[in-house]
Design goal:
Layout (H helix, E strand, L loop, with lengths): L2 H14 L5 E6 L2 E6 L2 E7 L3 E5 L2 H7 L5 E3 L1 E2 L2 E2 L4 E4 L7 H18 L1
Antiparallel strand pairs: 1-2, 2-3, 3-4, 4-8, 5-8, 6-7
Helix pairs in contact: 1-3
């Protein structure tokens, strides 16, 4: 992973430190943050945040600026996997929004 991806991982880690249930793993070239064995978010090369959400919620969130359906290798994922560009993650409040969305949707999936 490149420096901007590592920087994003550091920011994610700092905001998730209060949640002792979060596990961090390297997966598919991404620094993934998991809750209950399921990916919440991932810090990707280029400072892109991979966010796992409920597909219906993702269909709404994809309309936000800087958000696109995630692409993993040759495969475009469904609306349950979103890539959030670095421009949409400038402040910690921006990043915290996406972390909260991922946690809330994971809690709904239970």
């Amino acid at each position: 992973m490149d420096a901007s991806g590592e920087e994003l991982a550091d920011r994610v880690r700092a905001l998730l430190t209060l949640d002792g249930d979060i596990e961090e793993k390297r997966m598919f070239g991404t620094r993934a943050f998991l809750l209950g064995g399921h990916i919440l978010v991932g810090a990707r090369s280029g400072g892109v945040l991979l966010v796992r959400v409920d597909e219906k919620h993702g269909a709404v969130l994809i309309t936000r600026p800087g958000v696109a359906t995630a692409v993993m290798g040759p495969r475009t994922m469904g609306t349950g996997w979103l890539d959030v560009s670095p421009g949409a993650l400038v402040g910690d409040d921006d990043l915290a929004f996406w972390l909260d969305v991922a946690r809330e949707d994971a809690a709904r999936d239970g």
